[in-house]
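We modelled the chain as a single entity of 237 amino acids. Its sequence is:
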Amino acid sequence: MSSPTLDSAGKLIFRLRSIAPVLVIGLVVWLSWRGHTTPLPGDAALNWVGLGLAVLGQVIRLVTIASVPPNTSLQSRRMQATTLNTTGPYAVVRHPLYFGNYLITFGMLCIAHTPWAWGLGLAYVFGSQWLIARTEDGLLRQKFGAEWEQWSSEVHAFIPRLSKLSGVRGPFEWKRTIQREVNPFVGWASGATLLYLWESWVREQLPTQLWWTLVTVQAALLVLLVANKVWKKVSPA
């Protein structure tokens, strides 16, 4: 059902999707740092589960971006679509990019394992991604009509059809994808590294070898970020 207010909110969040999460992430990190001073059963397992979920979410984002043509919404600051993507990742789930975002968010919250961070993080990601997906669906329904209706009747917005995974094949545009995805990857990977570093330090469980390993990982992420910026200037996609 159409709602001008929700549609406007979805479009606004879509335009600000690279900026809006910054304050939320900052608050979540602050809450997480406070919570890491008290060890809880299962914290170590949650760290590994969280890392696995975040990596899976990143892989889904990579495959999705690599498989879509130019002039689609995720390649622009405004919602647009010259074609209806129904193959590859879009035959598995209607919004694979946002599904990947959910997994990364769940992963980071597992690493944070702080109740206030869980509440704030889940409220933001569910609300923002649902609004964007709802508005995108409205745009596609209006533009493609019966074709969209048929696709949406077969493919769920956020629950993947695992039976269709075998159909996710190339060709993939890896250069464009890597240049685009380095920044978000460095963002969540740095957050995970620094949270684990903080957790180990405040609990006095940070041997020298682990300290240097985590610092080296963080330094490598920063080098990757700078190298990608140079690459994009020298050889734009």
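As a brief sanity check on the tokenised model: The mean pLDDT is 79. Residues 24 and 124 are 8 Å apart (CA to CA).
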